[in-house]
């Protein structure tokens, strides 16, 4: 990611990268339905994963156009950081999926035991 984007990480200037596009969302921080904290946490960084994981609506995605100020050149983004975050996110999802599967199996066994009594 460019040093220029990284410098815009304060309440007075909030830039972020989403899908290799650079957005100046400073004027939107006060209007953000999720509050200012998520925006300020992502300021000056690649916020693609955070933006996508929240499950923003199509309207929210369309709003981005209004704040776009540029694009990163191919290979200029934080691909390594993004990949690392994705791996840790995928790992967490796998843990929760396995936990849910385990709970479902235990509930099935308990139900079967209860039903046969």
From TrEMBL:
Belongs to the cytochrome b5 family. Keywords: Heme, Iron, Membrane, Metal-binding, Transmembrane, Transmembrane helix. PROSITE patterns: CYTOCHROME_B5_1, CYTOCHROME_B5_2. The keyword Repeat does not apply. The lineage of its organism: Eukaryota, Metazoa, Ecdysozoa, Arthropoda, Hexapoda. This is Cytochrome b5 heme-binding domain-containing protein. One of its GO terms (molecular function) is heme binding. It comes from the Eukaryota. The chain crosses the membrane at residues 94-111. GO terms for cellular component: membrane. Pfam families: Cyt-b5.
């Amino acid at each position: 990611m460019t040093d220029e984007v990284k410098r815009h990480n304060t309440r007075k200037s909030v830039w972020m990268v989403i899908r290799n596009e650079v957005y100046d969302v400073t004027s939107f921080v006060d209007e953000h339905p999720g509050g200012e904290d998520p925006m300020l946490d992502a300021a000056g960084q690649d916020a693609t994963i955070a933006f996508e994981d929240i499950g923003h609506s199509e309207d929210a995605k369309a709003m981005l156009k209004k704040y776009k100020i540029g694009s990163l050149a191919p290979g200029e983004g934080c691909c390594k950081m993004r990949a690392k975050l994705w791996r840790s996110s995928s790992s967490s999802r796998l843990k929760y999926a396995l936990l849910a599967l385990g709970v479902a199996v235990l509930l099935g066994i308990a139900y079967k035991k209860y039903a046969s009594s």
